[in-house]
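The data are quoted verbatim for reference:
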Amino acid sequence: MRREGWLVNKKRVHRLWREEGLKVPEKQRKRLRLAEGGSENGCRRKRAGHRDHVWSYDFVMDRTEDGRRLKMMPVVDEHTRECLAIEVERSITAEDVIGTLARLFRQRGAPAFIRSDNGPEFVARTLKRWLAISEVGTLYIEPGSPWENAYTESFIGRFRDELLKREAFAGLVEAKVLSRITASTIITVGRTALWATGRLLSSRRRAGRQA
């Protein structure tokens, strides 16, 4: 359509295709594998052993229809695979990160560790000092090694597939609302999958004992 001179928004076209029952071809993403090696702070070597043991976070970018930037920050519990919060703003600073974490700490208590890359918001002295006072350890992954933060990267991949590749946001408020709805859907799907897997394993164990 663009070659023929039409001004179109790709995500809006995809949404219209789906509404009409047309299939939108999707790119096949390479599977994210956890490396056997990696740094001491990677998720392979420093694993979450229980709920609220290790949280992780990262940023994902998008834009509203007017071309203005959206910055999103999901916070994930690596043991339960829940998205605890997803912040959506035009800009997110280290002080904003502290505000989000402070709210989560009041709701759930603080984790033992938080894993992230070395982005300037995450390594800011104000944030590191505040986490130290809160007795939360920092796990900074090796630069250029996103697979060491695999659980948040996995969430972001699904979040892109289920929302960002499909929707064209009219504005910031719409992006906030749809992001939180989608994040809660991903949580529900994850819990259902874990429950179903547990039931399947239990039934197989019972069948093995009866054989």
Summary: The longest helix spans residues 172-210. Confidence is low (pLDDT under 50) at residues 32-37, 188-201. The longest strand covers residues 69-77.
